[in-house]
Amino acid sequence: MQPAKTLALALAALAVSGGSAALASTIQLSDDRRGDARCESKPCPDLKSAIANPGIFNKNELFYIITQHNAVKLSSFPRIAINTSGPNTSAPEFYVEKRATGAGVFNVKTGRKSGPATWRNYNAKSANWTFLPSAIGNPSSYGWRVEVVQAGSKVDAAPNAGYLKRSLR
Predict the structure, then answer these.
(1) Does the CA dihedral 22-26-27-28 come out positive or negative?
(2) pLDDT tens digit sequence for 87-144
(3) 98, 120 Cβ separation under 8 angstroms
(4) 93 and 82 in contact (C-beta within 8 Å)?
(5) Is residue 45 a contact partner of residue 156, using CB atoms and an 8 Å limit?
(6) How do residues 46-92 score in pLDDT, each as one tens digit?
(7) Are strands 164-167 and 141-150 parallel, antiparallel or unpaired?
(8) Helical (H) or strand (E) element with 58
(9) Most exposed residue of 34, 85, 110, 125, measured as fewest CB within 10 angstroms of its CB?
(10) Secondary structure class of 73 (helix, strand, coil)
(11) CA-based diameter of the chain, in Å?
């Protein structure tokens, strides 16, 4: 998906959710450069951008649009790492991801599902995640980043280091 199309989709999501120009500040974008992914297989899943936005039909939902430079593969579907507790460099407490047991929000310490999540492919290079804040404990704010993992190793992330901060109140 072209950057203009990605932005148009994000703005359309804002409009459909009943948003206004005042809500535009809730849209967050993380761009990622081509060719920075590191893995053994070719083509390596290479993130292009990630957008955080209020939900399309439910403004209380957390909605993310993820775009890759190459095709999104179900075997290495992008996940969202969520940091709710502290410094920008601490490990995530939750992953929003697709596992063999299904998609959901998973607590990193326990491995248990803390809430449902829905994923969709828009086209070959774009996908999205939707979940409720209750799945991550309803924090007033949290850090997020998108990651692609293969064989247990992170091959790409957006942003490349740390997290983007998102406020919920």
Answers:
(1) positive
(2) 666 899 999 999 989 999 999 999 999 999 999 987 889 999 999 999 999 999 999 9
(3) no
(4) yes
(5) yes
(6) 888 888 888 878 888 999 999 988 888 888 899 999 999 876 668 99
(7) antiparallel
(8) none
(9) 110
(10) coil
(11) 45
The backbone torsions φ and ψ at residue 115, rounded to the nearest 5 degrees and listed phi first, read: 180, 165
Tokens of 104: 């959901």
Helix or strand run (H / E) with residue 9:
helix 3-16
Q: What gap in Å lies between CA 99 and CA 87, rounded to an integer?
A: 27
Instruction: Grade residue 7 by pLDDT with cuts at 50, 70 and 90.
Output: very low
pLDDT band at 158 (very low <50, low <70, confident <90, very high): confident
Please give the distance of CA 85 from its chain centroid, rounded to a whole number: 18
DSSP string covering 21-83: GGGGGG-EEEE--TT----SSSSPP-EEEEEEEE-SS-TTSEEEEEEESS---GGG--EEEEE
Nearest-5° Cα angle at 102, 161 to 126: 50
C-alpha triplet 154, 155, 156: angle, nearest 5°: 100
Kindly report the number of other CB atoms within 10 A of residue 129's CB atom: 26
pTM to 2 decimals? 0.78
State both tokens at 119.
């994923």
Tokens 């790409």 appear where?
156
Judge residue 95's burial from the number of C-beta atoms within 10 Å of its C-beta, 0-12 exposed, 13-18 middle, 19 or more buried: buried
